[in-house]
Fold this protein.
Amino acid sequence: MKIYFLFILLFLSSCAIESKEVNEEPSQESEEIVDANFSQEGELIQENYEEGGLKNEGRLLNGKRNGLWKMYYPSGILWSESVYNQNVLNGPTRVYYPSGIMRYQGRFRNGKRTGKWIQYDETGKITHEDIFNN
């Protein structure tokens, strides 16, 4: 349920100011998700699927998501990685296809999309870019 909420939040938060369709060669270049600007404080939490296998992991500080959180497909492939500050998305985020290829990437500021967001097709080719001014 938490994973579905994350995806809904990612798609519904904020409005794009500028949008364009692009057709470029495959590119998975992106900023490093590990960022000195987010905290590594708090208790490390790992939740598993009922069948076994890691479902998500991250830190809780005072009962709230803090720092880098990773979600996984039941296959063990990384589904998403996002940075939180006191339960609010705040920093880089990436979402992947089950194949491990990046689906989209962008950045949040105080729970709203900001800056350049890039979408990729299943081969890794950039298909769409949006710029958010928040």
Notes: The longest strand covers residues 64-72.
